Sequence to fold (557 residues):
Amino acid sequence: MTERLTRYGPFLLALIALVAPLLAPNDYVIGVLARICLYALLALGLNIVVGFAGLLDLGFVAFFGIGSYVYAFLASPHFGLHLPFAAVMLVIIFTAAGSGVLIGAPTLRLRGDYLAIVTLGFGEITYICLVNLDRPVNITGGPNGLLSIDPPSFLGFVIDHNIEYYYLFLLTLGLVVLLSRRLRDSRIGWAWRAIREDEIAAEAMGVNTTMAKLQAFAVGASIAGFAGGLLASWQRSVFPDNFLLQESINILAMVILGGLGSVLGAILGAVAIVSLPEIFRDFALYRLLAFGLILILVMILRPQGLLAPRSGARRSAETK
Amino acid sequence: MLELRQIVSQYGPVIALRGVDLTVRQGEITCLLGGNAAGKSTIMKTIIGLVRPTSGTVSFEGQTLNKLPTRAIVSRGIALVPEGRRIFGRMTVWENLALGAHVRRGRPQAEIDEDIERIYGLFPRLRERVTQVAGTMSGGEQQMLAMGRALMARPRLLLLDEPSMGLSPAFVDQVFDIIQAINRQGMTILLVEQNANVALSIAQRGYVLTTGRIVASGTSAELLAADEVRHAYLGEA
Ligand SMILES: Nc1ncnc2c1ncn2[C@@H]1O[C@H](COP(=O)(O)OP(=O)(O)OP(=O)(O)O)[C@@H](O)[C@H]1O
Ligand SMILES: [Mg+2]
Fold:
């Protein structure tokens, strides 16, 4: 059953994703679908850090925030800059990767719980910076955020409907899925898995553990940053409260729920965690309760997550 | 082939090695004896670059290794089977072996597959368990896997840190037979052991380490006759 799910699952999911907005009853639902895509991007980014490389990052949302704000800086009246969409996104990829390396470097020697605490601190510091950097010079706009952000535009075609955003996000998601799978089965993916299992043994095998960990932080961060840029362009505004600790935890929950290290799982996790509260919206107060119960139930029934991770390498060994 | 000169290694303020001189000759099995906390594993870690010596030199085939990262040392032909085996527990046997070849980047897959076949020839038990998750194997099987994984780097010098640890006597014999077989095929070996009798029976030469210093060295026959060794490791009064 899992076997068949992993083989046909991706195609089925892609098909559903392509037609979903056409079947949606209203624009609100399309907006939810777009949000699912954004969070799936975040989950895939964190899946590289936590799932592939085993580095527990509790401040992941910081990179989402950095991406959003860089977008706002470069494409809004705030600094009077209106760079083209593609250029902004390119800058975001490098800025986010750089900040990933920056927080990765001092944490290289830390493991598990210690790493979690440091990254948690980094997430909080980023949030505090976003809230407070409106004085003495107004950089972030403080608690009021930044407004009137430019929408994405390609060769004169401006994106401004939810359904257009949805397909833009979905396209990005598709590319990140391919990237994730590529990385997982590459030499660096093997290095990550070795580090996740036993860092000292990995090093003894000649894995460049320093480089591999920094690469995980950098790739994860640039995916989250990219998602942040997309969010800014879609909301047309950014606020610090988009990037609270709660968001880091939600993203981590998506990755764990889906199955640490599973690409398809991370997406299913995002689908579940974004859509469940929407589905239970009618139950008002009980909505979060039902949401929590479902999460607990899934983790009891499937402690490894919805989809236990599989690797191309393992498959190739079995077919021998 | 390998030479340690006046090696001092520390863990922060703790001095683990206090000026170790040690030579491993090509084609031989050299064994390193010593009680708990003597610094045997630290010597192994210093050779492979997991621990940086504070002073002294490690040279391999005439080249100094001190400043090189572990991956460069492994590429130069030294592989470590670490204490406690440290196999990748949630990976399959095949994946563990494939990771052993990590430093041989860019080599054709056919060559790697051929080497894996050779490892299966050496350890037929591993072939039966290609797709088994390594962490579920018995201790002895894991030791074989750890050795096979190290051999995948195609080393010329193999460092074995207590390969008999926690194995039943029958399995110990089996593992030592394989160590001897690998040695006869031309592999130089540095073997750390607590079990002096067994180790000296297959080694040509040995060293005895106590609290970071070499206190005795010589051929296996000399060591078997030496008082320090008989008292400390062979259980004789
Ligand atoms: N990572 C470390 N941090 C601090 N001290 C260490 C570390 N590793 C080893 N030591 C200390 O260095 C000394 C030598 O340890 P080492 O592991 O080399 O001994 P050993 O001879 O291999 O012992 P055993 O036979 O028990 O494996 C010990 O006193 C040990 O406590
Ligand atoms: Mg030891």
In short: The pocket of adenosine-5'-triphosphate (ligand 1) is lined by residues B 11, 14, 16, 34, 36-42, 83 (CB under 6 Å).
